[in-house]
Design brief:
The chain is of the alpha+beta class. It has helices at residues 13-24, 43-60, 85-97, 144-168, 176-183, 185-188, 194-202, 211-219, 249-261; strands at residues 31-41, 67-72, 76-83, 103-110, 125-129. 42% of the residues lie in helices and 15% in strands.
């Protein structure tokens, strides 16, 4: 008598993700998104606006920690945000939906995004205001290679800046403004210049994804042709709605016509 073969448990990608999250001691995977943008109004207004958005998100997502650094310049800003992707999307929606005369958000573009980060830069979300240095020579060339080069410089400076701040921020009770002030000249050379941010925001290239375009892409569900219309009835596992609960006379008539032809 042959022994009965037990069917092995089939694991999906979701099972693997859950196992990895549990092993890392996390609730969800963390994405680090970096973007730069421009605004009109006072730095105090945009800091309060972003702080209010973060407080709302933290209240709605109590089980997920939101961390990062919102660095405000005159007319420009840099935002490093570490959170799950759904929180990042909601943060962008709130940022562009709550427009006011006191603070208007202009164009914003993404720098390279780091998915599934191993370790956060920050334990909490901070914001600070500073006046950055400027470049002596203006940036005029908008060739693709030049845009890539300047973006790499900007991105590397932001990561080095965050690394210095996170290493110095041992006491999380000290305001970020005080931490940055205590570092003084050590951080000045790490700030991306305001002229560099202006150059990247003025660059017109299909490889630069704007936040507005990101919202348009993720807000619309594309129409996907899952099965051919000439096949009837369609396989049940390919139909999302209760199509089989309806009586489709067109499909029945088409079947009868084919039988008559035979």
């Amino acid at each position: 008598m042959m022994k009965r073969v037990t069917e092995p448990v089939r694991k999906s990608l979701l099972d693997v993700i859950r196992k990895n999250i549990l092993a890392a001691g996390k609730v969800s995977y963390i994405t680090r998104v970096v973007y730069i943008g421009e605004y009109t109004g006072t730095n105090w207004n945009i800091e309060k606006k972003m702080e209010s958005i973060m407080e709302d998100l933290e209240a709605d997502y109590a089980n997920n920690s939101i961390s990062g650094l919102f660095l405000v310049y005159p007319d420009y800003y840099i935002h490093v945000l570490e959170a799950p992707e759904d929180i990042i999307y909601r943060h962008f929606k709130l940022l562009y939906s709550n427009e006011s005369e006191d603070c208007k958000i202009g164009k914003a573009i993404f720098l390279p995004t780091y998915h599934h980060v191993h370790q956060r830069f920050f334990m909490k979300w901070y914001h600070a205001y500073t006046v950055p240095p400027t470049l002596l020579q203006p940036l005029k060339s908008y060739e693709l290679s030049d845009i890539q080069h300047q973006m790499s410089i900007c991105f590397n400076k932001i990561y080095t800046l965050c690394n210095h701040i996170s290493n110095a921020d041992r006491d999380h009770l000290v305001p970020m403004q005080e931490v940055m002030r205590s570092l003084g000249d050590k951080l000045t050379r790490l700030y991306p210049e305001s002229t560099l941010l202006e150059y990247l925001l003025n660059a017109e290239s299909p490889v630069l994804l704007t936040v507005e375009k990101y919202l348009d892409i993720h807000a619309s569900v594309p129409l996907v042709n899952l099965y051919s219309d000439i096949i009837w009835p369609a396989p049940r596992d390919l139909i999302f709605c209760a199509e089989f609960e309806k009586e489709d006379r067109k499909g029945v008539d088409l079947t009868n016509q084919r039988r008559n032809i035979r």
